[in-house]
Amino acid sequence: MQKLLLLGDEAIAQGALDAGLSGVYAYPGTPSTEITEYIQNNKDARERGVHCTWSVNEKTAMETAVGVSYAGKRALVCMKHVGLNVAADPFTNSAITGANGGLVYLIADDPSMHSSQDEQDSRFYARFAQIPCLEPSSQQEAYDMIRYAFDLSESMRTPVLFRVTTRMAHSRSGVERREPRKANDLKLCDNPKQFILLPANARKQYRELLAKQDAFEQHAQKDGFNRYEDGADKKLGIIACGIAYNYLLENYDNLKCPHPVLKISQYPIPRADVQRMMDECEKILVLEEGYPIYEELLRGYMNNGGRILGRMDGTLPRDGELNPNIVAKALGMPATKGAPVPELVVARPPALCVGCPHVDSYLALNEAMKDHGKGKVFADIGCYTLGAMPPYNAICSTLDMGASITMAKGAADSGLSPVVAVIGDSTFTHSGMTGLLEAVNDKASITVMIMDNSTTGMTGGQDSHAFGKIEQICLGLGVEKEHIRLMKPLKANHEENVQIIKEELAYKGVSVIVPRRECIQTLNRRMKQQAAKK
Amino acid sequence: MKKDIILAGVGGQGILSIATVIGRAAVENNMFLKQAEVHGMSQRGGDVQSHLRISTDPIASDLIPEGKADLIISVEPMEALRYLPMLHADGWIVTNTEPFKNVPNYPDDQVVFDALKKQPHVTAFNADQVAKDLGSARSANMVILGAAARHLGLPFEEFEKAIRAIFGAKGDAVVESNLTALRKGAELGK
User: Fold this and answer.
1) Is A336 in contact with B66 (Cβ distance < 8 A)?
2) Quick one: A241 and A213 in the same domain?
């Protein structure tokens, strides 16, 4: 088959398509977005009718995919790591229902927080739900492994967590395709009670999940993604998980490590291999791209024995992603750093684009809030989070998707006034609507600015479920008609916009202001495409 | 043969089109390739870099180790200097000198040029101006790639072939303007 040059994300998408995927369900989030986009742009997927439109949020995505699995077909769910917090309810409970058609949860972690608010490690979630977890170390392995994940899901009747990190998701390499497999036919499961989690059923199903644990470990032992590579120098053994394996080998000529290495790409880690390393080696270095999960399990809470090295004893940094240099240092190798960065080089943080509608919204908001003091504008997750940067310095919080409205309400409940919530259109339908309903019912005094750029901007301009619906949604949730105000964020409208905001700040109740102007990125892209057509 | 390349610039400047051409040429010559890109928040006008590794032997890491890069290709002068810790003592810098000023404390142009001139192996010129003079302002990236081509260990025709393959769908005019930019860059990079 042909060799393709694919991002890790794209290799996963192609692998899923070739594994007979029936639908991908996802909310955009770096570094996972490109998987769904690849499927959306794939001709074969379109012809086969593979479902690939964006979901409203990660929870609806996962629940819909469980429905696909119920019907006997193969579904892939994609999200960034913090999206799994949103989907945690269906995630943990679907471990109890188990799967029918192949069900794979692709979770993209972001150690070092390149584009995120934390660096949580999704392997923890897999342990928590007690389901198998896969973590590829190369793009080819990612391609091969996604088909294996669907097969494992169907043979063990369990959802499978497929974990990647930023460098795997966003790194490109050659991938060889295999013969595509047909999609499954509709087929309901034999046990009609499998998906009914009444306590009596759930207890039985949970015991079945517990009984599968040994089999999960046996699969990890024998299915080929984990490998014990012997080495002559047994002073140290190394457990290298996911792409940490690459960083390890990078430090040796001909990619040959002199120490025994246990390459891990499937969890739970097989105990027999770990036991062998414990017996043969004096010390063990654990390389994990994320939290020291298995390191802590091996050393124990009280560090009995002191033979386990890694993030917890300072051999590796406690936080942040790994790289070849960090691993070299842990192995006692000399640093290779080139010349220092000259002092003249200044930081260049990300910023709102030139021509971005949020710029004009923030300039108007800042002026309207000028006499009310700082610390009263609660923001959310999206491009407008960059309103925290100079010259705007406009916001006081960013917690999670939707928290602008609820945090503002809490502050208002506590007596802070006036308070403003700033939320994007896509974030509003993702997780803001429920909070707005609560504010209306509780007669909170908050001003909500739904910054409508008609797209999911930060992740590159995906369709927004809020498109054309915001006023109707707000009316339906009970916001009074005269306190739903539209404005067009343009420099020319500045005075008028400041006035609108001031009027609503004075209102003691829930008001919604919708600054509406298309994202400059999607606008430019559309213009270019139109010009190309002519 | 193995080349480790840092591509540098500012989000939105399109450093990935350079990577695409080099990558295509490498893969067509049966070389291994790994290329780590930056997507997401940094693309909004922040500093961005891509680690591009091509080799006749298998490559382990997606990231280039510090002090091991053979080449920094940059479309912005200050960004070229940001990655000096990645560059090998014998490594080369090929950079555009047209500054992209989207931060209030951007240093004086002269200070940046002086720092570049101090580097032992550097090719620096205003690729934006060269591209404009050629009548295709948007091909500055291909001018820079042309200037870097002699350090990449592949025959020059391989990059021409790659450009034809990549831009072919956009028509002959686009292919030709990119090829002209590439050749002009190669001339200036000598």
Assistant:
1) yes
2) no
Neighbouring residues of A303: CB distance < 8 A, sequence distance ≥ 6: A312, A313
Dist. CA A334–CA A354, nearest whole Å: 44
Q: What is the reported pLDDT for A288?
A: 98
Q: Residue B69 and residue A338: Cβ atoms within 8 Å?
A: yes
How many other β-carbons are positioned within 10 Å of the β-carbon of residue A88?
16
Question: What is the ipTM score, two decimals?
Answer: 0.94
**Residue A336, domain member (yes or no):** no
Is a pLDDT exceeding 70 seen at residue A483?
A: yes
Of A246, A324, A344, the CB nearest to B112: A344
Overall domain count for chain A: 3
- Which of A325, A345, A354 to mutate to test binding with chain B, by most B CBs within 10 Å of its CB? A345
| Contact call for B85 and A172, based on CB within 8 A | no
pLDDT digits (tens, 9 = 90+) for A292-323: 999 999 999 999 889 999 999 999 999 999 99
pLDDT of A342 higher than 70: yes
Q: Residues A283, A156: one domain? A: no
User: Using the beta-carbon criterion (under 8 Å), do A30 and B105 form an inter-chain contact?
Assistant: no
Check: CB of residue A242 under 8 Å from CB of residue A113.
Answer: no
- Considering the domain architecture, whether residues A44 and A191 belong to the same structural domain is answered as yes
- What angle in degrees, to the nearest 10, is found between the helix axes of A8-18 and A139-156? 40
CATH number at residue A296: 3.40.50.920
The nearest alpha carbon in chain A to B23 belongs to A5
Please check whether residue B3 is in contact with residue B53, taking contact to mean a CB–CB distance below 8 angstroms: yes
Of A346, A348, A383, the CB nearest to B10: A348
CA atoms of A400 and A83, how far apart (whole Å): 10
CB of B88 less than 8 A from some CB of A: yes
DSSP-assigned letters across all residues of A444-477: --EEEEEEB-SSBTTTT-B--TTTTTHHHHHHHH
Which domain CATH number covers A20? 3.40.50.970
Are A345 and B105 within 8 A, CB to CB? no
Shared domain for A45 and A137, answered yes or no, is yes
Give me the numbers of helices (H) and strands (E) for chain A, helices first please: 22, 18
- pTM value is 0.96
A167 and A232 share a domain?
A: no
The pLDDT tens digits of the residues spanning A10-68 come to 999 999 999 999 999 999 999 999 999 999 999 999 999 999 999 999 999 999 999 99
Domain that holds residue A430: 357-522
Choose the closest CB to B87 out of A328, A339, A351: A339
Closest Cα of chain A to B38: distance in Å?
A: 7
Question: SS3 of B110, please?
Answer: helix
Size of the A and B interface in Cβ pairs below 8 Å: 156
Through-space distance between the first and last CA atoms of chain A, rounded to whole angstroms:
37
